Amino acid sequence: MIKQSVQETEILKVDNLSWHADEREILSGIHFCLTKGEMLGIIGPNGAGKSSLLRCLYRYIKPSSGTITLFGDEITTLSAKEFAKRVAVVLQDTPHHFDLTTAQLVAIGLTPHKGPFDITTAKDREIITDALAKVGLTHKAGQTYEHLSGGEKQRALIARAIVQRPKLLILDEPTNHLDIRYQIQILELLRSLNISVITSIHDLNLASALCDQLLLLDAGKCISHGTPVEVLTEQRIGDVFGVCCKVEPHPQHANPQISYFYGYSSIREKQGGQDDCGHKA
Ligand SMILES: Nc1ncnc2c1ncn2[C@@H]1O[C@H](COP(=O)(O)OP(=O)(O)OP(=O)(O)O)[C@@H](O)[C@H]1O
């Protein structure tokens, strides 16, 4: 049972989270909160710790210290079924599902809501059909999941997560295999679900356009956390990613729009990242 008093305000609270592997500190001192319907983007360079942070959140790895509270409950205290009712996860690398059709794969999302002897009802089929339509895969419902393209598989996994009806959706690089139309469509769909979403994302412009909050990681530490306007400054992007860029308000939504400059990354490296790339002159 979800604690009512907490439900109205805070979905997730991460407090002083750290994780060590092979005696190396991969994540340290991470704090953040997420409220209902908010979308948090985890950004940062390769190896920054984005996937590791998500793995802690969906209980794949156990933090070395700190707490993760979901609707007021420490996540380790929840049964697998209760956790699955609250949290759905969409990962880049998923196990093979050789014999399943796309619709059967999506139907797996119903599992936390079913008893061992429950049968699939007309209402269940409606939920599955609706989720397939939302991700643009109605025409692939009967096709073998393994025969879908990379982007179609990704959308099928998102449909499975929608069917699971979670309170919190965690995604690791959901736009990786998608063409630009589906990148935008899927992120807009995630926003429209009115659930809290945490997603790692490499494309800073997409993150800026669609996330309420961004958490910028570098070497396992939170470098900045706040709105896209607060986090995505030229100086910070230059320092963390080692690139030169210009940040301007996007003509439609006014959040930061980043234009990258080419031929400066080696200059930054030689100068210890201290130059301003010369593009302002
Ligand atoms: N199980 C593990 N054992 C040891 N080191 C690990 C383990 N998992 C991750 N790491 C290390 O932790 C660091 C962060 O990895 P992680 O995959 O979280 O980064 P990331 O930000 O998601 O990177 P990318 O953008 O490249 O996907 C890397 O240096 C990685 O090698």
UniProtKB/TrEMBL annotation:
Extract the InterPro entries matched here. AAA+_ATPase (IPR003593), ABC_transporter-like_ATP-bd (IPR003439), ABC_transporter-like_CS (IPR017871), P-loop_NTPase (IPR027417)
Q: Which UniProt keywords apply?
A: ATP-binding, Nucleotide-binding
**Domain ABC transporter intervals:** 12-244
Q: Which Gene3D superfamilies did the record assign?
A: P-loop containing nucleotide triphosphate hydrolases
Q: A Pfam family this protein belongs to?
A: ABC_tran
Domain of life, per lineage: Bacteria
Residue runs in coiled coils: none
A Gene Ontology MF term for this entry? ATP binding
Q: Which protein, by its recorded name, is this?
A: ABC transporter ATP-binding protein
Instruction: List the source organism.
Output: Shewanella nanhaiensis
